[in-house]
Amino acid sequence: MIDLDALTELCGSLGCRITPECPLREYITFKFGGPCRALISINSAQSAAELIKYMKKNSVKYSVIGRGSNIIAADEGFDGVVLLFGSDFANIEVRDDIIKCDAGALLMSACAHAQRAGLSGMENLFGIPGTVGGALYMNAGAYGSEMKDIVISAEYIDANGEIKTAGSENMKFSYRYSIFFDTESIITSVTMRLKKGDPEEIKKAMNECMDKRKAKQPLEYPSAGSTFKRPKGSYASLLIDQCGLKGLSCGGAMVSEKHSGFVINKGCATCADVLELCGKVQQIVKEKTGYQLELEPVILR
Ligand SMILES: Cc1cc2nc3c(=O)[nH]c(=O)nc-3n(C[C@H](O)[C@H](O)[C@H](O)COP(=O)(O)OP(=O)(O)OC[C@H]3O[C@@H](n4cnc5c(N)ncnc54)[C@H](O)[C@@H]3O)c2cc1C
To answer: How many structural domains comprise the chain?
Structure first.
């Protein structure tokens, strides 16, 4: 049982906004998902640490979201507290070739800051939705670049609510994976090192990346981006295409006609629709090609 009065009082003393019975669909890009018991908008690392200590002490289940751009939220919602790392905790600082971002800063904003400061290294990441914290967690990447190429360190809160720092050499990065998957740690800030470059060249490269996304991805529909991880030796979209699954639907969920790696929400999809469709795609691809596709988005339930 969550003592909402006590939690509201704690949030008040920390200056964090709290929304009881908050519908998750408003906070994830797929646009479905039931309510969580409370959503708390984090405003500092210290507030997050205090809240985590409280939740540990009182055995309150909690989870973290950034922009919700790689999350599948259950229709029945989340029976716990969601800590939102968003615009209340989104400072970005650029000094020389170093850029330090609060976890709630948008990756796109970090890219824009880098571009204006004439710092190169984030061009290929431009256009990836989500926060810097979420990007580090997922080791987000595109067009041959990944977060691991530029991150030098991160501040995080460990499972005991202590604020710590880790160097990137300890983050065990691999494809869409970082050590944060296997710890209960919560990322509060990320420091990246870039290289000096020409702002106009950087802008051009960023715009090219965005143009490629607009041309290839069904950005007009809610989604969580690529629904399946890239299997070793092939591409999920290629395999799905080869199996003739473009346009396959379950309820309001559909394999995009524009990019078969994306499952899209045609407007009324539920979590159940998306999971049923993904299950069908996985089964058919396995039967026809032998490849086992794995979901990329994280399921919040
Ligand atoms: C249209 C579209 C295109 C996309 N293109 C790409 C792409 O090219 N490349 C790519 O890699 N991804 C892509 N994605 C997926 C997604 O944008 C990235 O994975 C992004 O980095 C997720 O960031 P987020 O803030 O939205 O994280 P969320 O979706 O909110 O969370 C994802 C996971 O990270 C955890 N998390 C988030 N913040 C923190 C934190 N501060 N501390 C600890 N854990 C945290 C969450 O608990 C969850 O497990 C795309 C998504 C969409 C919708």
So the answer is: 3
168-179: pLDDT as tens digits: 999 999 999 999
Do 167 and 114 lie in one domain? The reply is yes
Q: Residue 38's domain spans which residues?
A: 4-84
Read off the pLDDT of residues 208-265 as tens digits, 9 standing for 90 and up: 999 999 999 999 999 999 999 999 999 999 999 999 999 999 999 999 999 999 999 9
Residue 103 Cβ < 6 Å to ligand 1: yes
Element (H, E) at 71: strand 71-73
Q: Which of 153, 176, 189, 237 is catalytic?
A: 176
Contact 40, 17 (CB under 8 A): yes
**296 is a catalytic site residue:** yes
CATH code, 46 = 3.30.43.10
Is 103 strand, coil or helix? coil
* Catalytic residue flag (residue 213): no
Does ligand 1 lie within 6 Å of residue 121's CB atom? no
Same domain, 256 and 286: yes
3-class SS of residue 36: strand
